[in-house]
Amino acid sequence: MNDNTTLEQRLTGWEAGDLRPPTFPSADVSYVVDDTAVGRILFARNDSGALVATRYVTDDQAVDAVLDRLAHSVSPRVLRMPAALDDARHQFDDFLAGRRHDFDLETDLALATPFQRSVLETLARTVGYGERETYGGLAKAIDRPTASRAVGAALGANPLCIVVPCHRVVGSHGALTGYAGGVAAKEYLLDLETAS
Amino acid sequence: MNLPPFQRLVDDHWRDVARLARGLAGPVDGDDVAQQAWTQAYAAYPGLTSTRNLRGWLLTITHRCAMDLHRSRGRRAVPTDDETVLAGTARVDGPESGLVDEDLWGRVSRLPERQREAVVLKYVGDLDHPAIAELLGTTPTMSRRLVSDGLKNLRESA
Lengths: 196, 158
Description:
The complex is a heterodimer.
Chain A (H helix, E strand, L loop, with lengths): L1 H11 L16 E8 L2 E8 L4 E6 L3 H14 L4 E3 L5 H11 L17 H13 L6 E2 H7 L6 H9 L12 E2 L12 H13 L1
Helix pairs in contact in A: 4-6, 5-6
Chain B lengths: L5 H20 L1 H18 L9 H19 L10 H4 L15 H8 L3 H12 L4 H8 L3 H17 L2
């Protein structure tokens, strides 16, 4: 019996040498997590190349939460594919260094609800680089003048942070209220745009 | 069906798939078998109807890929519990090089085919007898017997 135990342990503990992880030519959803000047961001794009997420992720749970949403709303075939996000990451680097004022990227608000989409699309269309808007002003712009609280929530759920510039929306007296990436990141972005 | 992101399956199970593939098909073919298993799993994933036992699902695909390769190489892998066949000397190229515990794995690779499969599925795949029986097209009782005969042969060949 002892012999068997040893034998079983050797079989179970077999290290099969240098193992290689699998590789895949492409994915329905490609993503990468990258440290940027304003914090750690998860970048993801769909199989036609459109950016579907640029979300601040402060810890592993936040990463998992975004990946779960992508799996549910876009496709479960989500894979870590850093090279697929190189272009988006380079444009982010340039933007965060003040070398670029807008993004040349296809986007898809697949992670947003219809209401969030209307808020975010209006924001992207109407509030340009270096400009600011208030929650109330944005609520008026979507013909829901009393919905500034709901507008704030929609901005907080923005799946495309920085690309859809929710950092340009401030309190009615200009206060830098909450931001997914933290108030310091919001301040960095607004200062950057004011300086450029 | 709320499926988890596929990357989580890769991160959680790629080592198990690679080990089982090498155990079943040897170090050279094993890597191809593992890669093929992942390609098939990726293709089939959106149609999956249950997330219970994703590891078992992946190891089943790995086993099937190893058997497909085995058959395509012209070696017969006829599922049978026939005593004379089980006692026979059907062999495949087992783990030979670059492996820890080469002596043991050389001996595993020389086991009769069904015993070798059962031993690898049990100890490398960490699968239970009902699961092994299903993969081998036999009963849990027979799976238990194949494993214990395999262990006996391994001890005797030491």
